[in-house]
Amino acid sequence: MMMSITSCVDEELPTADTPSGNLEALWQLLDERYCFFDYKHDEIGVDWDEVHERYRKMINNDMTRRQLFEVCCNMIGELRDGHVNLGAAFDLGRNWSYWEDYPENYYDSIARSYLGRDYSMAASLKYKVLDDNIGYVRCESFSDAMGEGNIGSMLSILATCNGLIIDIRNNGGGELTNSERLASFFTNERRLVGYVYHKTGKGHNDFSTPKAIYLDPAKGIRWQKPVVVITNRQVFSAANDFVKIMKCLPNVTIVGDKTGGGSGMPFTQEIPSGWRVRYSAVVFTDAQGHHIEFGIEPDVKVDIDAADVIRRHDTIIETARNLLHL
Amino acid sequence: MTRILVLAILLSVQICTAKAQTSDTQPKHVSRMLLGIGHTDVMDTYLSPYSYKGTRIDLVFDKRYSHTLHRIELHGAATENPAGNVNEYEGGAAYSVAHLYDVFAKGRFCLNIGPMGSAYAGCIYNERNGNNPAQAKVSLMGKCAAMAQYEFDWLHRTMKVEYMAELPLLGIAYSPQFGQSYYEEFALRNYDHNCVVAHTFNTPSLTHHLLMEVPVCKSTIYFGYRGVIDQSKYNNLRYHSYNHSLLIGLKL
User: What is the domain extent for residue B127?
Assistant: First the structure.
């Protein structure tokens, strides 16, 4: 008993603020806590032990801080996860290949020409009735709170429209509660929209039992007409989750490019240098239990046409309008 | 482990049923307020794998009616990580009640041992973390407490030295799972072993103090040392809070 009382509960990761201490701490931290190792192994061939062997050979004690940072960033980049970052005062390590390697499919000046200057705003949602009586809602982020009152009031004003476009291109995410709240205005019944589970230990497969996530309809006015959600590769994290939910609903069509993914909820930890380590810790899947970490395919795949850019037409918005008029 | 717990419980019961001896050295009612300032070392692996070090302030009010001790503790701490670029803040409040039986008294020395119940609620906040910014600490613990007191005369005054130690035996505590988010717990209400059985072996902790009681004019002051070693290993998450403080106090 006394042995137990006097035993220490202490650090388990390397504590030395040296090049090898930091790399080892980073590798071990992710090894114990990152939630997509098996999926990344199957999809892109990530072997985390092999990554360790390869990168530890690049470390020597004469490295500068920036050189160490670069090696560490390259190592975490192997996971190809926009939620895995290394943050130092002088830089942010990231792998944004999920959108950098693909067409942008969003031109801010063209998209803004649809809103003009006389648009309205409900919290962070910008909206307008287009000249063909289609409601257009621009949702740039789910970071800012949007209340049921904001969304309900906006939909009341747009109620006479024939259809609704929700443009979430370049929406990098934010709060899941915001994306769920917006989606709840487009269902009349409780629906299964996905599953969630988390790590319960340090093993790559130490996971909790997946728990179902249901979407409950919002109270008050709800949208009953067709909806098109338009997407591109920069739709990430909570915005990716919004697309996952909307894809479960009737009268909703996803138009544009595949989303960027990012279905792991990120946690933050650190290594001895004090650099912030962000990593996916909690897994969200779709209603069939499939991973959406690498994005969600649209129902109608459309890229912005170069000729349309010259005419200052947004091909994806125009496709959405045509679909709503069918 | 079970045998040791049973032995500890039996010892407490035996102490409770033993004929209490009344010590002349103990006043019937004592109330005091103690202020502690010292060094703290906090690690909670839900927030960071490393120890954060800094300063902690404790405020302790205790009131003793004969053999019953009531105590309210408040504490706050500000700490920073080893690299010195992130701060963590800890705060908490506890209420404890103990019944201390006289088990030995000889001359001006007395030893009291008894059961203690303690309720604690607190929080650690890391200013940099995103979806795991804070860790809630809530527990109800049954403890074993022991207090030794010795009176002596010095400089024409009667002074007293007091040592008290507390060890957790059995209780319940809150803990998130290893990688569970608060979004799952509170927005989705997904339970995953968040209420854990806490015992001596997964909560190897010790709170103790050494106090000198000195009468000054018509009042009494206290000074001494307080050590709080809180540790836990729940749901593969590790926590420690090592505190060493200097105490000063006043009889109320």
Answer: 2-251
State yes or no: pLDDT of B9 exceeds 50.
no
Residues 268-307 of A with CB under 8 A from B: 268-270, 272-274, 276, 278, 281-282
- pLDDT at residue B12 tops 50: no
CATH of the domain at B237: 2.40.128
Residues of A in contact with B81 (CB under 8 A): 270, 274
For residues B34 and B26, the model is more confident at B34
What DSSP line would sit under A196-243, residue for residue? EEEB-SSSTT-BPPPEEEEEPPPSS----S-EEEEE-TT-BTHHHHHH
Neighbours of B155 (CB within 10 A): 6
* Contacts of the segment B132-135: beta carbons below 8 A, 24+ positions apart: B132/A267, B132/A268, B132/A281, B132/B46, B132/B47, B132/B181, B132/B182, B133/B47, B134/B47, B134/B182, B135/B44, B135/B46, B135/B47, B135/B176, B135/B239
Whether A33 and chain B come into contact, CB under 8 Å, resolves to yes
Structural domains in chain A? 16-95 (3.30.750.44), 108-265+281-325 (3.90.226.10)
pLDDT value of residue A249: 97
Query: Which residues of chain A does B228 touch, with a Cβ-Cβ cutoff of 8 Å?
Result: none
Yes or no: say if A137 and A125 are a contact pair by the CB < 8 Å rule. Answer: yes
Q: Give chain A's residues under pLDDT 50.
A: none
Q: Do A265 and B183 touch (CB under 8 A)?
A: yes
Number of domains in chain B: 1
pLDDT tens digits for range B96-155? 999 999 999 999 999 999 999 999 999 999 999 999 999 999 999 999 999 999 999 998
Mark yes or no for CB contact B240/A8 under 8 Å: yes
| CA dihedral of residues A184, A185, A190, A194 (deg, nearest 10) | -40
Buried b (16+ CB within 10 A) or exposed e, B219-244: ebebebbbbbbbbbbbbbbbbbbbbe
Say which of B128, B200, B238 has its CB closest to residue A9: B238
* Helix or strand holding residue B213 (H, E): strand B206-216
A266 inside 8 A of chain B by CB: yes
